[in-house]
Amino acid sequence: MVEVVETDSWPMRRAISLAFTSQVNGLDYRLGVSTPFADAPPAGYPVLFVLDGDANFGAASETARNQSIFSPGVDAAVVVAIGYPVGELRDILRRRYLDLTTPAPPEPMAPSDPYFGSVTGGMDGFLDVVEHEILPIVAGRFPIDDGRRALFGHSLGGLTALRALLTRPALFDSVVASSPSLHWDDRAIFGDAERFLASTPTGERQPALLISVGALEDGTFPMTGNARDMADRLKPAVGSRLRALSLHVFGDENHDSVVLPALSRAVRFAFKTTD
Questions:
Q1: Fold classified for 15-271
Q2: Is this model's pTM higher than 0.90 or not?
Q3: Which of 2, 188, 215, 271 would you call most buried, defined as having the most Cβ atoms within 10 angstroms of its Cβ?
Q4: What ranges do the domains of the chain cover?
Q5: Is 155 a catalytic residue?
């Protein structure tokens, strides 16, 4: 009879966890970092920063690794998942509701909703943490190509990724906004888009933007319509403020099921260098 021993976890290969308390907003964060099996190129690895890291770290890491091995022309990348050192799902959800929203009254919620009682409006402070603390932490520990930084976010994370691009366009080389919650605060993000279009290009960086959404997501909010609207609004920026802009609608996918195909496309969008 084979002896079986139950363990606490299934460790991910070449992955570590880093925890810190932000000096920007005083909150605790946990980073999951996975590195490729391939040696770093002379310029360093490209890097994918993933929001909602507690949920997306494993999928993003294995997607990036597998595509770099089996998909021609996709470069191996470091994956950095931004999450929280708390154990309960309700606590994680409340933290993301703070970090991934701009100031606005919370959407109506029942007491049974895991977001019930959450505080909103910490998005810009969170992006300060990303810019001034998380990026330097990663660059100081791993061989990173600062010219090939990508950001992925889904839902409220997609909203946050898009705001990062519109208000801090020099921060990331590629941004993927998966099923972004563009309805938040009565579509206030569209005001950011107008200000972005009216701004003077700095020449520092022309990021590429991918907006993706599932064809079955329309329900309480017009997710696909809002995504198409945002892509149409930003088209005039291509060639001046944006290096590229793509919209992809995944057929037969809803708001939850679309995350995995969105991650797969995000890796190819950010790190595919040859056909």
A1: Rossmann fold (3.40.50)
A2: yes
A3: 271
A4: 15-271
A5: yes
